[in-house]
Each structure stands twice: as structure tokens, then as C-alpha cells.
Queue: 4 jobs
Job 1
Amino acid sequence: MLYLLDYGAGNVRSLANSIRKLGYDFKWVQSPEDLKHATKLLFPGVGHFGQALSSLRSQGYAEPLKEYIASGKPYMGICIGMQALFESSDEAPGVEGLGVLPGAVGKFDSSNGQKVPHMGWNRATAVKAGAVRYGLAEDEVTGESSSRSSDHFYFVHSHRVAFDPNLHEDCALTLTQYGSEVYLSSVQKGNIFATQFHPEKSGKAGLELLRAWLSQGDASSSTGKWLMEPSQAAKPRSKDGLTKRIVACLDVRSNDQGDLVVTKGESYDVREKAESGSAAKATTGSNGEVRNLGKPVDLAMRYYLEGADEVTFLNITSFRSSALQDQPMLAMTEIAAATIFVPLTIGGGIKDTVDPDGTPHSALEVAEAYFRAGADKVSIGSEAVTATETLLAALAEGEFDPVKAPASALTGQTGIERIAGAYGNQAVVVSIDPRRVYLEEGKPAPPAHAWSVVSDGERSWWYACTIKGGRETRDVDVVQLARAVTRLGAGELLVNSIDADGQGKGFDRQLVDLVRRYTTVPVIASSGAGHPSHFTEIFTPKPLQAGESGQGSSVEAALAAGIFHRKEVSIDEVKAELEKAGMEVRRETL
Ligand code: 1PR
């Protein structure tokens, strides 16, 4: 019987969903005693090494787990379930790992500007032939970049086991390069198989890997033959295998008939244009019906099958009247997570709320409900602007950078802080809804916003943040917001543009570069995609100009909605174009 060890550290729903999807049954480990009955064991550890190991020990799992592994029965670990096998981790000095494999887990080096966590799709390259490889591809070891879908897997982690040819010769199965670091992305030794990446979030390649492990009878004792000298494999190549991510976005709301639909706005106006004097105008006010582009899960499934690297659902009206547990978005997330095996982000309404019966819910509780339903990240909009305003209010006279706010201004109580504290920074995306504020000719920008002024040679403007889906503009600029929320713990920024939304004229490069220049977390460019070349443009690094500091790189991901909904451009066409431009992408159509 297959058992899944969930010691309560976080969301393991996706893994359970993928096992069921593959037609296998399993039981949850309920007590250390259960480990004696397991004939196969999956340990999908998530979160913090120290907490995971302490929790395993305090609940009495550590020794039975070691005994299980020593018994020779198949063991598969994922993420912390792999790291736990080693001796220790820099993440928790003094906490012992299970010590089944040699070496320590260390933190990625971020001193050279490398972003940590390592988040996204990267190559996992098999280094041995003849080993039990669970379908992991080997051709990358010697060949040049190929687009084999099975090479890319989804990673999200800040710590890794750096590959040491002397220590890991007999357990290394695949290696991955992030920046210039080469590390163990999966190990196999006898009955032990473990991956640093998340097969349950890695699309078809991940499901196939799980299927191969699940369908394998007994554990193998083969360790395989090295395809090249281990010392050679340890050398970084000129380029790592991290891909540019393409995100499909679904703006969801209920239409006038009360059905949950995917809609799409132009500059955030999601209603059809109605003729003056028409019936639609009379019934719905100044505009026509809410645009209906399809059913949320059906459309999301289409994007998953077409190779989207991530799917984002934004609840654009927050369904304010229903109780948290009755939110249509929660039910929708559960269904989506049961069928879509790439990362899911849910946004809209992630804030402190009160049910109609008066029951309050903190933003953390709301987020938890979505994580339990199967979300991997939550996206926060309006509440991020409010949290920024609190930091700005604490600044000294004449100071405008929220990073300079005294530490006492951080209450620890904002949704961003609490969710990032509980689930990690990578689980918190802040969605920014900026609007251009044009400057009158010859007039300077308000001093507080001078750093966000850009110009096209004719006109100059700054970017003001909005709340409530663009309905209210606040005295906060996009740089202030980006810097404040990253200080509070946001791990990624979704940079929309009300001006470019739905226009199909390309992303707002100046906006994206501005945010990029002043922050270090991954950025998702959004709004305005109309052609595959727009993606190539936004992913092409902008060189630093004189006097500029910070990152000269491009964004990590780009998001689009309208062109995909209307089938004007497919996700694969976008990726083909990026590939032609020499960029690393994951090509997978199911
Ligand atoms: O404030 O935390 O409840 O979050 C509300 C969320 O809903 C925010 O993420 C906000 O961006 C979003 N939202 C609110 N109103 C609208 C609207 O359109 N009326 N949609 C809205 C934002 C922007 C993008 C869009 C891209 C790509 N949508 O997500 O999909 O612009 O479009 P394109 O490729 O067709 O140009 P809170």
C-alpha cells in the first residue's frame, strides 16, 4: 500500500490530486505505526528544513522513517522530502537531517544578484545511463539545447545540495544549473528516489515521472553508469536552463445572470460597448453586458493542455456578499487543482473580510482556504496599496522611500507579512494596477513621485497605483508600492497597466523597467500583449544606462489574457517565437 506522509507542514493537495489522476490509491500516514504497513512511501515535505525535521521528531516519525528507508522498500521524497535525507542544512544550523545521504544542504548564493528563491521551470538532466531514471532525459548532458518537454520541471526553493562529485557520485541522478551553481535536482540510490523539484506541478513531464515511480514494482539496487566524468558534470555551462514563463490569466466575475464567467476588459472596463438608447444601456447603465469569454475551469484546462507555465485566476469583483467557505472561487480552485498540474495563483479578495453573519476572517485565513483548495500562490491587490500607505505615513518629513520607514512601522499584521511568514515569500504575489498620470508641460512631478517619472520624448508621466480594480487612484507611485511590498515579504510582482490592458499594442516596457530597476524579486509583465513579438521584446534584457543602478535584466514571466481567450495567438506560438530568439522555454502540448 502506498502511504503519503503529511506531517502538517502545508499544502499537499496537488500531490494527492496527481496520484488520484494517475489512477492510484493511497493512505495518509496517521501515526508512526503506519510506516510499518507501508510498502511504498511518498514524503512531500514543504517549507522550512528546521520545522520539518523538528516536527518529524516531535511526532515520533524520524526513527520509523529511517527504519522504513533502511528496509529497502521504495521511498520517494519531494523538496524537503529530498533535503531531509542529507546530514544538515544551513537553513537550520544545529538541526540534524536523517543523514541517509552524505553532505549538507546550503543556501543559493545571491551575492552576485542571483534571485533567491529559485522559482520556475528549469532543466533536470540525467547524468547516468542504465540507472532507474523514471523517464528523466539524458540527452542534455552532451548535446546542445533541445526542447524536450521532459527536461523541464517546476522548482521553488531557496536551499539546495551543491553537487560534489566526491560525495554524490553514487546518488546523483539529475543535475540542474541555476545561475552558475550546479546542484542535485534528484537523487537515486537503491530504494531511495527524491526530487528537489515538484513533479505534481510539472505538467505532463511531472505526471509521467510520478507514474514511472508508482508503477515500478520493487526498488532497484542499480545506480547506473556515469555518462561523463562527474567532475565534468559539476562544471557550470555558459547558460542555465531556467525558462521564461508564460502565464495565462483569467479575470473571473459573475455576470448579470449570476454565472461565474471569464471576462476581459479594455483598460479594466469589462462591459461590451452599448449603443446609446439601446435596451442594454437602459438595463445596465452606461454600458452593455459583461463580456463572457467562457467558463473559468474549462478555459484554464485549455491553457494547461496548450502548455501554459502557470495559470492565474483573478476574482475581479471579490463576490463580496458570500461567506468565505461559500465563495464560488474556492470551489472553482478545488476543481481546477484536481485537473491542472502547473502552479495556480488565485487573486482578488485576499484581505481581512467579514462573512454576512458577522464572522471575521483574517487575510491569512482567506489565503489558507485557497491554499487548502489547491492554490500555490495568492495575489494581493488593494490591500497591498493600503499597507504601503501605512509605511509611507511613518516616514520622516521629506522622505518618500518606504524602505526607509522605521522597523516599528512594520506591524507584522498585514496580510502580506502574515501569509509570507506562514507560507513563504514565494507564495505571495502582489498585483499592481497602475495608471499613467501625465504631467502638464513644463511642470515637474510631485517630489514624492519624481523617481517614477518616465517620458516618451513628447510627454512625461508617472505611474499612480489604484485600488478596487482601478476605480480609485491613490497617492502612491508604482516604485513606492513595489519597494514597500517586497520589504513586507511579497515574493513576486504582477505588473499590470490600466492604460495598456486589452489594447494589444504590447507591454508597457517603461513601466516594467521602472519596477525592475528598483526591486529584486521576480516580475511578471502584464497587460497589452497582442502579438508573439511583444513577448520577445519584454523578455529581451535592457542594458543599464549611465547613472542607473540595480538590475539590467528582463522580466521572469509574461502574462496575457485577451489574445489567448480569443484564440488570436496560441501559447505554443509565443514559445516558438521566444525559442527562435534564443530564449529558454518549456514546450509542452498535451
Ligand atoms: O484588490 O486584492 O481584491 O485584487 C483584485 C484583482 O483583480 C487585482 O489583481 C486586479 O488587477 C484585478 N482586477 C480588478 N478589476 C479588474 C478589471 O479588469 N476590471 N483585472 C481586474 C485586472 C488585469 C490583468 C489582465 C491583463 C492582461 N486584469 O490581469 O488579465 O491586463 O490582459 P491582456 O493580455 O488582455 O491585455 P484585490
Job 2
Amino acid sequence: AAADIGIIVSLCKRRGFIFPASEIYGGLGSTWDYGPLGVELKNNVKRAWWKAVVYDRDDIEGMDGAILMNRLVWKYSGHEATFSDPLVDCRECKGRFRADKTYELDCPRYKRKVAACSANLTEPRAFNLMFKTQVGPVEEDAAVAYLRPETAQSIFVNFKNIVDSRWRKIPFGIAQIGKAFRNEIVPGNFTFRTREFEQMEIEFFCKPGTDADWHAHWIEERHNWYLRYGIQAENLRRYVQQPEELAHYARACTDLQYRFFPEREDEEKQWDELEGIANRTDYDLSVHSKGKHDKWQVHNEHSTQSLVYRDPVTNEKYFPYVIEPSAGADRATLAFLMDAYSEKPGPDGEPRVVLKLHPALAPIKVAVLPLARNKSELVEKAKAIKADLQRHGIRAVYDDTAAIGKLYARQDEIGTPFCVTVDYDTLGIGKTKDGAKEEDAPASPAGLLDTVTVRDRDTWEQVRVPIAGLRDFLADRLGT
Ligand code: ATP
């Protein structure tokens, strides 16, 4: 079973993955800063996603759009009018909640669960989630802009640019990773729901009629991606949205849900969305095209382009259908952390945390450790090995700030797959007793010169590997 979020929050703070943001000023509700290890982990999650969807396929292009966009994008996408959650106030505790969710929060006034005082609620009212800001120095209506609440729209408005500049034919997709902002009514549960977060989105364009097959393809692909990078099958499931839950333009949507709340008694409440994979039909490219679109009851008077696609072979014209796998980089990072968490008794009998992250996601791949820090030959050799690994693209660190057993424990706790130890046998000098002369040292066993010990995080097994073959040995086991 995975750890619950509380355990992960404290591990993250203790070991430099994620800190409460603006902490020394008392924080700012539900904002988080990724620390030295968190930034590496999240970058690795994003890299693994990009590799799977852009590099390992031939039918996806990448892009990176601006966060601030012309307000008209949000007018025609429908966000200005409808990107809202139903907000209710509790007349008793004065709390504000989403009417479409159930809460297990403590009521600040009555110090009990919100459900207990939720009988006295106002009627729900629509609360738009977009953060408004102003572009330019003068406060005037024309300068209103929003921080994007999703990355998808810059993909849609660049559809034609990418088709034209990259000679793309349908079917193909566009992928983007970037920040999105939503003024959530009730953020919380660590990085699960925040007001600033990162999305990893694909908009996959296909011919109407092929959309159901592509939808099934992407559900399969995305599900397998999480399993490949270490999520345990029993903690991931598919939830097919019911017709009444779908956005008005969507034909279907399947959510990949992760068991984010294993501590909840009601098994149904343990699950929440990790990624949504929607069939958005031809809504997006239609509404951003100039002209009247009766199907969507939209008349676009501002767009300068038509995003209609002309099949180069048949000359047939149509608005492509869109399959959208939309994932959260922060939620994925949290799920990988929760799933990797394990404890087992250490050599001293004390419980030891071992973060069994997939090597491709681990913030640090290899820690190179000298057996003793007061022996300059050991230190120099270890530093040289660290530098060589790093030069060849393997994220490695050097550490000599504690005894070897403690250094191993620290690396287990942060998920480092391998520790490399440089000892006396590596140098062929044998270990001298304190005060003894070096020439009195016992000879090093034959065959160990220029070899190091490699320790595996998960099995704690140690093998002796020649330094000359170390890079290949590690690269074979680190995977991508
Ligand atoms: P919810 O119903 O939980 O509010 P949503 O259905 O509105 O989520 P989408 O619009 O489908 O979410 O966003 C796609 C993905 O972006 C989500 O699956 C999630 O991983 C991520 N995401 C959305 N909102 C947030 C948030 N406030 N904080 C962190 N990640 C988020």
C-alpha cells in the first residue's frame, strides 16, 4: 500500500523535496515551493512524459505557449462565461465550499467536520476560477488579461501554424507542459489541489469517425505510462464519466484516478483524478475559427483565421476532432512519491524509509561515497568518479558528511538507486590502523584494484564493479 499524504508532506519538508511557499512570512494558502530534490523529481516526471509522447512517437509535435493570452481566446473558448465552480457559503461557520464536492474538513468555528454544519448553506453561485490581471500601465478594460487556467488553448490557436510549418497531416498531436492557474475555492491536500500548478497536455487531432479509436488508444497509452514508471496497478483505475458529468462539447471522458487518500475508510473516497482523457469533438477548432458555427451556437467575429483542415489527398474539408489527455505534473509527482514510499527495518533494527522511485524519476541516480573522508586518496578518487559519471549525463553526487551506514540510509530515503563506495581495496593500499605506517598495511586482496562497491537501494546487495565498466553497469540499470 502507498503512504498517505501526511507522511509524504513531512518527508518532503525534511528532505528537501517540497516546502510551504513564503514560509517565513506565514505562507500563502496552498502554495508550495519545490526544493533541491523536488525540482529534479518533477523535471524527471516531465521529461519521462515528453519522451513518451514526443520523442518515442512520430505523430506529436511539442510547443511552449505564453501564459498571458489575448482575452478573446477565453471569450471564444467559453472560459469567460462558464469556467466556474458552484460556490456555497456556510452561514454558520462562514466557510466557503464547492457545492459539487463533499468535504472532510474541520469547520473552523465548530471544530468539527464540515458535513456536520453544512445544512445551513447558501444557494450555489457560479464562481469564475480565472485569475484576472492587467496588461500595460493603465487600468482600462482593454488591458484585462487572465492567467491561463489550462495550457490547451495555446495549442488550439497555434494549430494552423504547426500544420503549416511542420507539414503535418491528420492524425497528429501537439504536446505542451506549462503552468496553469485557477483560483480554486478550496485548495488543499498538499500539491493535489493548488492555485498554481503545472499541466502536461496533449491535443490529438483526428478525423471525425476515428475519434473513438483514438480515445481508446490514449486511455491505454496513458494508463500504461504510469505503470511503466512505477505506479502499482492496484492504486490506479479508470473512471468513465457519466453523460451528465461531461462538458457540453465532450463526447466522452475517462479519468485516470489514483488512490490519493488510502487512509479514508470509504474505499470510493480514496480515489481522485490524476489525469483526464477527453474526446472534445470539433468544438475547439470550430469556435476559434472566424464565422458562424451553428453547431456550437458561436459566432466568432474576431478570429482572423479558419482552422478548418483540408485533406491534401481527398481535398475534403473538416474541423478535426480532438482527443485530450490532460495530466497534472504536480499530481503525478505526488502520486509517484506516495507509491514509492516504503519502510523496512534497517541494519540497526530501526525502521528505514526507502523511496523506491523508478530510476528514471529518481532525483539523484548515484551517490559516490569515500569510505573515509580523512584519507585524501579515497576522497580524490570518489570525486573523480562522480565527475566522470556526471560528465556522461548520469546525475551523481559526492557525499562524505557522515559514516557510510548513515550515508546509505540518507540515499535510501531520497530514492537514489545506487551508491558507489570507494574503499582501500579500490586503491590497492589496504587499510592502515591508526598510527601504523602505511607500508605495514595488509595487502589488498588481488583483483580488487580499481574496483568499487555498488550498492542497490532496493535489495541492499553489494557487488564489486571495475571502475572502467562502472558507467555501462549503471546506465544498463538506470533505464530511461
Ligand atoms: P477537478 O475536478 O479535480 O477540479 P478538473 O477536472 O477541473 O479537476 P482538468 O481541468 O481536467 O481538472 O485538469 C487536468 C489535470 O490538471 C487534472 O487531472 C489534474 O491533474 C491537474 N489539475 C487540475 N486542477 C488542478 C489544481 N488545482 N491543482 C493541481 N493540479 C490540477
Job 3
Amino acid sequence: VEKPNMPYNLIGEKKLSMLVEAFYHRVARHPELSNLFPDDLTETARKQKQFLTQYLGGPPIYTEEHGHPMLRARHLPFPITESRAKAWLGCMHEAMDDVQLEGPVREDFFHRLALTAHHMVNTDEREQ
Ligand code: HEM
């Protein structure tokens, strides 16, 4: 059933897609993030679009292809510090500006992402 009040439907597929593109454009150029990611971000962006679609209440297309997200476990191979979580969120904040995602839907989405990003931290700053 279509749920018009779901954030996914409020944002729309096109804007979500633009957001993910703008986000990885910034990640690829961020001094604290770029070295963690593959040079070709096509597949990373494709999976992130799938994930965020279901995270925002759209169809569960990430899980259909990749199984349960288990996001923290999938991030364990990468040393994620508080400072990298902040950098990730900074790129997302700027990407939201880039695509002019505004209003309560942006605030709610960003707040959830901040909680998720801090949950991904798996490495103490001093270990870096
Ligand atoms: C994958 C870094 C936070 C969702 C990845 C990858 C890296 C990474 C290096 C692997 C990319 C690849 O090899 O293709 C980070 C860092 C974060 C962070 C440094 C800082 C906190 C998040 C958050 C979310 C997220 C907050 C979701 C809201 C994903 C997804 C994938 C992914 C869906 C693809 C997983 C798969 O392979 O199926 N991330 N991430 N990440 N990340 Fe993050």
C-alpha cells in the first residue's frame, strides 16, 4: 500500500537519488573519508540508494538483494572514529543543501542518520 506520509514518499525517488550522488561526490573528496572507500563509488552509491529507500519507509529493496542490513557488522572492516562519523554527517548535511532538501522531513532524516552514524563508531580516535 502507498503510504503518502512516509519520508520516502515525501522526498521522492528522484531527490533521494540526487542526494546520494551529491553525498558520494563529497565523500570522494573528503580528506578523512576518501581513503576508506573504493575509487569507483558506483556500486557503493547503488547500495546506499537501496538502503536509504527502505530506511525512509520505501520498498525493502536493499534487503531483497543483500539480506538483513546489519549495518554495524558491515562497517566493522573499516576503522570508524567519532571524527569520521562527524565527517560523514558533514558530507550528508552539505549534500542535503546541494539538492535543497528542506523542512521537517530533512530534520527528521538527518537526526536519524546522526544516531545511526554514531552507532557505527567502532574505533577509538587514538588507535588511528
Ligand atoms: C558501506 C563508511 C556511516 C550505510 C560503507 C563502506 C564504507 C562506509 C567504507 C564500504 C563502501 C564499499 O566498499 O562499497 C562509513 C563511514 C561512516 C558510515 C566512515 C561514518 C559513520 C553509514 C551510515 C549509513 C551507512 C550512517 C546508513 C544510514 C552504508 C551502506 C553501505 C555502506 C548501506 C553498503 C553496505 C553493503 O556493502 O551492502 N560505509 N559509513 N553508512 N554504508 Fe557506511
Job 4
Amino acid sequence: MPKTFFIDTSRCTACRGCQIACKEWHELPANKTTQFGWGSHQNPQDLNPNNYKLVRFSEHLDGDVIRWNFFPDQCRHCVSPPCKQVGDMTHENAIVQDKATGAVLFTEATRKFSELDFEDIRDACPYNIPRRDPETGQLSKCTMCIDRVRSGMLPACVKACPTGTMNFGEREEMLKLAAQRLERVRKTFPEAMLADPDDVNVIYLLTDAPENYHDYAVASLVPVRPMDRKSFLAVLGRPLR
Ligand code: SF4
Ligand code: SF4
Ligand code: SF4
């Protein structure tokens, strides 16, 4: 049975404890950052090889009310991961899916991917997650803290979250919790929704329209791109020659 995160954004205060905990556990170096927008504390500006987790800030006017939305972004550990389907066409099993947990993992063999291969893999991801270290070529993203999970511990970001936003456990248990929270949150936010719950193992509860969080909050927001050759063949299930 796969493991699943339930991320209840209605409870997120944007303290960024999860983002820092992720960096600390994985011993990821600091990035040079700059303030990039009036009123936004999002930092760094985007996911990168040293940030597997990023709390995104988004502000908009809803009638007379200013809505400030927080979105702790990370890999969704897709049930059928498109990144793996495309990656397997060039280097089989450089991207693996752990049977016990459902975690999608970028192994060291991802260094064999060319820059073009990487672009195909990133384009295949509906959530714009994969990043590449420009020096080593290693592809990077959230690992589900597989070392901690295999030892019976919670992922670092879940352990660090003080508000109950980050939850982790068996998929059935998380789906039940998500349904309960959705019912409750809808009393205040009638448009509240779960983001792509059937397709991913990182399920977000949103209180606002997905486009008011992030361009890639749900798969359906991804602009329709002309399909590259590898993605096309992956869809057809045919080998790349
Ligand atoms: Fe939000 Fe929890 Fe992360 Fe703080 S630690 S930013 S409350 S998800
Ligand atoms: Fe792969 Fe993207 Fe899905 Fe993560 S979110 S498993 S990187 S396709
Ligand atoms: Fe980072 Fe681990 Fe949380 Fe993934 S599960 S975002 S690797 S702390």
C-alpha cells in the first residue's frame, strides 16, 4: 500500500519550517537569495537542486478581500509517474518507483541523462518538479525522505510542521483524513477542493482556485504543449529507436 502525504493548506502559516527541515535533513547547501517581489516572502524564487521543498506565496484581490495563499510545493510522487515513463526510454530505471512506499526516486544514474533528456523529463512532469545540478548532472527532487520512512520515521517536513498542515501515512488513512477536512473546510470556503487525489500520493487541500496558488498547482493548469517525440512514444507505450 503506497504512502501518501495530505497537505492541508487551510492550516499553513507559511512559517517555512518544512522547507528548512528538508534542507537540514538532506544537508543541502544554502542558496544566494534576493527579495524578488513587494509583499512576498517566498524565497528562493523557485525549486532548485538545493531546495526539494518550497513554500510558495501568492497574493490576489478577491472582491474587497486580499487573499494570501501558501503552497508548500514538492514532488507529488505520482501514482503512474510520467517522469519515469519518459526517463525509462533513454536509461531504464534511472528513475525508480519504490514498491513498498510508492516513492518516485531519482537515482545517481540520472546523471547519464543529457540536457535534452532532462528537458523531456521536466516537460513530462505535470507539476514542473525535476531540477538538474548543472555540475554533476544529477536530477533532483523530493525523495519522500525514503531513508527516514524505511526506518519508521516521518518525513522531515511532516515532523517539523507545527500546524497540522503536513500529514503522512497509509494512502487509505490520508484519503479519509482529506475527505473529513474537505467537508469541514467547505463550510467556510465552499470552493475548497482536493488537487488531483486519484493521480498523486501528495494530495493538497486548496481553499481557493488552483490558479490562485501556483501555475502548476494541479495537472489541468499545465498549458497544452506540442508533444515531443519521447512523450508521444511513451503515451503509445512504444520503444524509442
Ligand atoms: Fe506551512 Fe507547516 Fe510548512 Fe509551516 S511547516 S510552512 S505551517 S506546511
Ligand atoms: Fe515525477 Fe513530477 Fe510526478 Fe514527481 S510530480 S513523480 S517528478 S512526474
Ligand atoms: Fe523534503 Fe523529505 Fe519533505 Fe520530500 S519528504 S519535501 S525530501 S523533507
